[in-house]
Amino acid sequence: MPGIDDRLTPCGRLIRQYDSDRYLTALFASPDRREALFALAAFNLEIAKTREVVTEPLLGQIRLQWWRDALDEMFRGEVRRHEVMMPLAKAVERHRLDRRQFERLLVVREFDLEDRPPADFAALEAYAVETSVPLVLLAYAVLATEPSSDGEGFANALGTATALTGIARAVPFHARQRRLYLPADLMAEADVAGADVFALRPHDGLARVVASVCEAAGRHLETARQIAGSLQRSATPLRLQAALTAGHLKVLRRAGYNVFAPAVQRTRPLRIAGLLWRALLGRS
After folding, report:
1. Could you tell me if 169 and 187 are in contact, meaning their C-beta atoms sit under 8 angstroms apart?
2. Residue 34 CB contacts under 8 Å (≥ 6 apart), including other chains
3. Lower Cβ count inside 10 Å, N or C end of the chain?
4. C-alpha distances in angstroms, 198 versus 24, 127, 203, 208, 279?
């Protein structure tokens, strides 16, 4: 009997392995829209990992240019034979997805190649917006069965909350690569140096910086959840994404914002399933 993985498309397998939150929430989309969500998430994953897979900025620029060229061709009706671009082209055509959102996702990834932290919290928040909000807007365009004036506000709030939470949780991952995404001004105020983070050990000042980021994420998430009730039922995957983000923030808070705590980095399938179930019942 074929397993779940055997029935997944290449994009689905990619997201299942590397972006479990979006994979799980996409499963709650109607089958005729699910592959479009997988394709969007796979595109985002491919461009987001650029800094991780290159050894110097020029190579990163070349990689991002490949994706720009592929998008240009796709919007002209010429689709590259690539496991992400082919289903992405189908999603764009069927759901009339906005090219500008793809371009926003590409442009912001140039910042990753600079290997310098955001100067202040405003810069971090701007980065969070550009790396995540366009993706939520595109996902909402796939899921929405009719136009809604609340969609953009929800996408802005959820996307920002999700990105800020992800940045906080990813501090150890980035530190192993000697990269920092926490605001330089908050780091200085908390008397935290890059070397302190790269040591991969708990630090009181670092916990204070992470707490500030998470508190901002929580405010954006609360805005998203206030809007979520007015969204169409077809937007359930995005409401569930909000529930998972709330769960991640709760774990961070319980850990005292120590990003190196095992509980923060551990994936708990049963806990995630419980969060999703509570969200579906309206108890999130």
Report:
1. no
2. 12, 26, 27
3. N
4. 31, 22, 11, 17, 36
Q: Are 224 and 161 in contact (CB under 8 A)?
A: yes
pTM of the model: 0.93
Sign, CA torsion 26/27/28/33? positive
Q: Which two tokens stand for residue 94?
A: 């069927």
Q: Cα 85 from chain centroid?
A: 19
Residues 227-249: tens digit of each pLDDT: 998 888 899 999 999 999 999 99
What distances in angstroms separate CA 195 from CA 82, 115, 178, 181, one per listed residue?
A: 40, 15, 9, 14
Rounded average pLDDT over 15-40: 95
Contact 127, 103 (CB under 8 A): no
Task: Give the pLDDT of residue 282.
Answer: 57
Write the CA distances from 33 to 29, 87, 148, 171, 175, integer angstroms: 6, 11, 18, 33, 36
Domains in the chain (CATH in brackets) are 1-115 (no CATH), 116-284 (1.10.600.10)
The residue among 267, 262, 224, 227 whose CA lies nearest residue 247 is 267
Separation of alpha carbons 228 and 205, rounded Å: 35
Cα–Cα distance for residue pair 134/146, rounded to 1 Å: 19
Written as six digits, the tokens of 49 are: 């990992």
Distance CA 30, CA 274 (A): 21
CA pseudo-torsion sign 111, 114, 119, 121: positive
Rounded to 5 degrees, what are φ and ψ at 217? -60, -40
The whole-angstrom separation of Cα 237 and Cα 220 is: 18
Q: 25: burial class by Cβ within 10 Å (0-12, 13-18, 19+)?
A: buried
What mean pLDDT is predicted for residues 110-138? 97
Q: Contact, 22 vs 11, CB < 8 A?
A: no
